[in-house]
Specification:
Blueprint: H1 12-17, H2 19-24, H3 31-51, E1 53-58, H4 63-66, E2 72-74, H5 76-85, E3 90-94, H6 97-106, E4 111-113, H7 129-138, E5 144-147, H8 152-155, E6 160-162, H9 167-178, E7 182-186, H10 189-196, E8 202-205, H11 218-227, E9 232-235, H12 241-246, E10 249-250, H13 253-263, E11 267-271, H14 274-280, E12 288-290, H15 304-313, H16 325-336, H17 349-352, E13 359-360
Parallel strand pairs: 1-2, 1-3, 3-4, 5-6, 5-7, 7-8, 8-13, 9-10, 9-11, 11-12
Helix pairs in contact: 3-15, 5-6, 6-16
């Protein structure tokens, strides 16, 4: 049995302590599940105060993590910004390994823990720093924009990072800064193809993909429209272009959440990871969330028990080679320093339905 700092029992005191969280999770967690989760939530929130720790919870975390123990929640860009400015001594990454590395890059003096070292990413695994060095040799003088969903050694070889929220903005900035009409955008081929339809900058792309988003196809949306003719379809830009073209709105996870809470459609489909809909539900009463969605097996390795054990045992610390940190930090900080968008970025759906070629790196 693991060492524990607090008795993990569902008591009247725990019920009272977590009542507000329970209300937000109404309809998402059964009473039996709640009696197992509430003691962990209460203990984690006490431990955070005791150890000066914060939990960064990505939009793909399950609701009990997102609403129960997340101090800062959002997309990769939002969490990167919070990691950079947090006063906490310990950061618990409610997300996958590359996110924890990004936190360490931005806060090298802090302890960064991840509840499960196996929480990887198919996209991050698709490219290495050595690959980027070869790409730069092949395309000298062309700026490299790297999606934040990458490892530290890849970030260290790049000029500026981006997220799906600001990819178009970053690509256009890089082209202007480097005085070129071509930009390398790696490693997500679908993000690159979708960005290419939003800008006049020529895009050079790598054949990486997210295993969650690449499984969607246009037929998924066609089936939804047959079954639910009035449903609004929102898609993530890591989806294939034909999915984007068939959707009503495309944007980052933050942009999708913002769309739902602002517009409150009667029925909506979020073409992304399943927990996204579960988490937005709390802020969108009356909106019916339809499927399809796909689970990310890596995100689902992060659990309340894992977060609790990380805090109690101070386990699974994420480190980054000190030689990589300054170069990787420059690329990430350039992204963070981009002028904030007036509202969460959305993709122009008229442009999204036009085909634009990208140059694939072979």
């Amino acid at each position: 049995m693991p060492d524990t700092a607090f008795p993990l029992e569902f008591t009247p005191a725990v019920a009272a302590e977590t009542a507000a969280i329970r209300a937000r999770l109404a309809g998402k967690v059964s009473e039996l599940e709640w009696q197992l989760q509430a003691p962990l939530i209460a203990a984690i929130n006490r431990l955070k105060k005791e150890k000066n720790a914060v939990v960064l919870a990505h939009n793909y975390m399950t609701p009990e993590i997102f609403h129960g123990v997340g101090d800062y929640v959002g997309d990769s860009l939002g969490l990167a910004r919070e990691a950079a400015k947090s006063d906490a001594a310990i950061i618990i990454q409610g997300g996958v390994h590359f996110m924890a590395e990004t936190s360490k890059i931005l806060a090298p003096d802090k302890t960064v823990l991840i509840p499960d070292m196996r929480a990887g990413c198919s996209l991050a695994s698709s490219i290495t720093g050595a690959d980027v060095r070869l790409i730069k040799q092949r395309y000298p003088g062309v700026p490299v924009v790297t999606y934040v969903n990458t490892t530290a050694d890849v970030k260290a070889e790049t000029d500026i990072c981006c997220t799906s929220a600001n990819a178009v903005q970053v690509v256009e900035w890089a082209a202007k800064e480097w005085g070129t009409d071509r930009v390398i955008l790696i490693p997500d081929q679908f993000l690159a193809k979708n960005v290419a339809r939003q800008t006049d900058i020529k895009i050079i792309a790598w054949a990486g993909a997210c295993e969650v988003h690449e499984r969607f196809d246009a037929d998924d949306i066609a089936q939804v429209r047959i079954a639910h003719p009035g449903a609004v379809v929102l898609a993530h830009p890591e989806c294939p272009p034909e999915v984007i073209a068939a959707s009503d709105f495309t944007g980052s996870t933050t942009a999708m959440a913002d769309y739902v809470t602002r517009n409150k459609p009667k029925q909506v489909v979020l073409i992304t990871e399943c927990s996204m809909a579960d988490n937005v539900t709390a802020d969108a009463p009356g909106v019916e969330f339809l499927r399809p969605c796909n689970l990310c097996p890596h995100m689902k390795r992060i659990t309340l028990q894992g977060i609790y054990d990380s805090l109690v045992k101070h386990q699974y610390e994420v480190t980054v080679d000190p030689d990589l940190i300054p170069r990787a930090a420059l690329a990430v900080q350039r992204m963070i320093d981009m002028p904030p968008l007036a509202k969460p970025a959305r993709y122009d759906m008229v442009k999204a339905r036009h085909h634009v070629d990208v140059e694939m790196i072979s």
